[in-house]
Every structure is written in C-alpha cells, then in structure tokens.
Design a protein that fits this description.
single chain, 278 residues, Fructose-1,6-Bisphosphatase, Chain A, domain 1, seven-stranded mixed β-sheet, 15 strands, binds 2-hydroxy-1-(hydroxymethyl)ethyl dihydrogen phosphate, binds magnesium ion
C-alpha cells in the first residue's frame, strides 16, 4: 500500500495518540509508519543520503544539516487534524544539498492527502499544483497562520486566548485570517494566490522546508520574521505574495525568543506526556 493511502485509511479510524512536548504536539502510529516507509524507500535508492525527519528527531536523532544530500520529512503535517478528522493533513518532503540553510531547497513536495492535491516545486523550474502552474498573488489581504501550534503550552494559550492571533498593527496588511492546521498547506495557499501571506514563530524545519521553495517558485517570498533572509532552522518564517507584503509583516510582527532547530541538539522527547485514544 502506498503511504498516502495509509494516511487516508487511518484517517477515519480510532487512533492511539501520544503527546510529545505539548497538548498540540501529537504523534500516532501512522506518523511513525509513514516516516519509516519513506526513509526506507529513499535509503534503498540513495544509501548515503541523510535525513531530518520529525519523528526520528522526536525519538532522539540530531537535527544536523551537512553538505550531504538531505531529505527533510514531515510524515503528517497536521497530526492534530488527523487525530480529530479535520480534513487537512499533508506529507511534506524537501530535498537540499550543500547545507543550503538560506537558499531554496532543490525541490519540495507537499501532498494534501484528503484534498488529493500535490504541490511541488523544483529550483528554477516553477511551482505546480496537480500539474498546473502556481502563481502567488502579489497582493496583501488574506493571511494564514496557526495560533495554537507551539511546543510550549503557554505560547499556545497566548495565541488562542488572544482570539485572533493577528496583532493590531497587522490589520493594515490583513483583511482575513485562515488557519488550516498544517503549516505546509497554509504556506502552499500563498503559492496558489488563495492567501497572501503566512507567518509563524515556532514551526520546525520539517513543517516549512518543502513549502518554502513552493512559495518561492510560485513568485512569492520567504523571509525570517525579523526581515533577514529565510533560514529554515530559525523556526521563524514569513511567506508572502511579494517582498513588500513580507516587509510590512516583518515590521509589525511581535517577536519572542525561539530555540533554533539545529541548536543544542539532539532533542529527544522520549516517553512523551501521555497517551489517548481518539
Ligand atoms: O502536525 P505537525 O507535523 O506537528 O505540524 C503542525 C505544527 O505544529 C502543523 O503544521
Ligand atoms: Mg508538521
Ligand atoms: Mg508532523
């Protein structure tokens, strides 16, 4: 069985859910299974390639980007959606070589499983959705964001209790807010022109690597929330329909400290915080 079908089959079934770092940081048997299958299929073909996989890192592997060809994998982006059967769950795969922290990936793939939408981009060759070219809007207006996604429960509650995650200053750039529960698909909306910007502090490299090149190849812009060049390890990202929109957001964003993905690794979250059946 192919791995998107594994996710679709499990989507409607009861799941054993383990908590990792917070109430929103979940893992199921399907996350683990899909990551294992993907890594093993790639390793069969490219035995010397390296991996940064969300669930392998949670199990204690290091986040270490070297010059070697590296696959950055999120087996299910939107695990909380998957658990609650909210129909936005994606597989996110990026490929990078020569330690390109700031430059685009070689390619990125985001497959939104329930929607059956395959977003992909290759460096210098454009971005596509199910074979059709993608173009960012170049406008400002609709923003995607994830107010309740953070490894730290306190930060999550701050995002949720604000009712709207958008600071007042941001309202000059934004007319509407959408949160799909998957950063990868949120960012791909910027590539389609359906949304004009996305921003977040606290996502991980596996959440944003693939969609970063999809946004860029669609004519959009990715940058750090402080306005510096995009760095997938910084855990801070703005994806926008134009440089002007990205700059305006970076000027009004309310920053807070966030540990880099490649700092002080490994980040074993062994044992987790509990288990539930949903
Ligand atoms: O479901 P995941 O992979 O934990 O990702 C979330 C981030 O918290 C949504 O992008
Ligand atoms: Mg994710
Ligand atoms: Mg995931």
């Amino acid at each position: 069985m192919c791995f998107p079908q594994i996710i679709l089959n499990a989507f409607k079934q009861q799941k054993q859910v383990h908590l990792k770092s917070s109430q929103a940081d979940l893992v199921t048997e399907t996350d683990l299974r899909v990551e294992t299958i993907l890594k093993s299929a790639i390793r069969d073909k490219y035995p010397v390639h390296r991996f940064i996989g969300e669930e392998s890192v949670a199990a204690g592997e290091c986040v270490e980007l070297t010059d070697s060809p590296t696959w950055i994998i999120d087996p299910i982006d939107g695990t909380a959606n998957f658990v609650h059967r909210f129909p936005f769950v994606a597989i996110s795969i990026a490929f990078t070589v020569n330690k390109q922290v700031k430059a685009p990936m070689e390619f990125g793939i985001v497959y939104s499983c329930v929607e059956d939408k395959l977003f992909y981009a290759q460096k210098g060759r454009g971005a596509f959705l199910n074979g059709e070219p993608l173009n960012a809007s170049g406008q400002e207006g609709g923003i995607t964001c994830e107010p309740d996604s953070d490894d730290d429960d306190e930060v999550r509650w701050q995002g949720l209790s604000g009712l709207c995650c958008i600071p007042d200053d941001m309202l000059c750039v934004c007319f509407s807010v959408r949160a799909l529960g998957t950063a990868a698909v949120d960012m791909c909306q910027v590539a389609t022109g359906g949304a004009d910007a996305y921003y977040h502090i606290g996502m991980h490299c596996w959440d944003i690597a693939a969609s970063s090149i999809i946004v860029q190849e669609a004519g959009g812009v990715v940058m750090d929330t402080d306005g510096s060049p995009f760095d997938m390890m910084s855990r801070r990202v703005i994806a926008a329909s134009s440089t002007a929109v990205a700059n305006r957001i970076s000027q009004v964003i309310q920053a807070f400290p966030c540990r880099r993905d490649d700092e002080d690794q490994c980040r074993c979250i062994c044992g987790g915080k509990g288990v539930n059946s949903v």
